[in-house]
Amino acid sequence: MKRLHVHVAVxxxxxxxxxxxxxxxxxxxxxxxxxxxWMLDDPRVNFAISDRARTASVDHLGIQVDTSEELQxxxxxxxxxxxxTRDQQAATCCYARSDKAWVNDPSGLRWETFFTFGEAxxxxxxxxxxxxxxxxxAPAASCCSTPAxxxxxxx
Length: 155
Known about the structure:
Layout: E1 3-9, H1 13-24, E2 30-32, E3 35-41, E4 44-50, E5 57-65, H2 68-80, E6 85-93, E7 96-104, E8 110-119
Parallel strand pairs: 1-4, 5-8
Antiparallel strand pairs: 1-5, 2-3, 3-4, 6-7, 7-8
GO biological process, one term: response to cadmium ion
Organism: Brevundimonas viscosa
Pfam family, one: Glyoxalase
């Protein structure tokens, strides 16, 4: 089964947690100093917010899957659509361990497809910022950076 993923960059994390908790009728399941995440079943969405010194906006959209096989299928669809993709194995991003495939839609909106298989203690660095294109050949050691942007602990 698939779950829509939405990641929003916010100006004020505490205020935004209050707003989205009221909107969803539930507290986030994960809260960190710079991040919060709701895993909702109605609507079926992995909704995340972060305060990481970015302009408040939709950071990226994605589709979370339950198995590696589903990820391979979705990544194959992205490649078949003719867009440049970037695959990541065992990435540590957003306090989780995941395999991923990233792509920009034709207008530049970032999409992430991913299979999460564990938790992590660090947030790390995000993928390219809003409006930046996914790099065609990012270094293998870098889970969340472009060739011009060195990776830290990763998102």
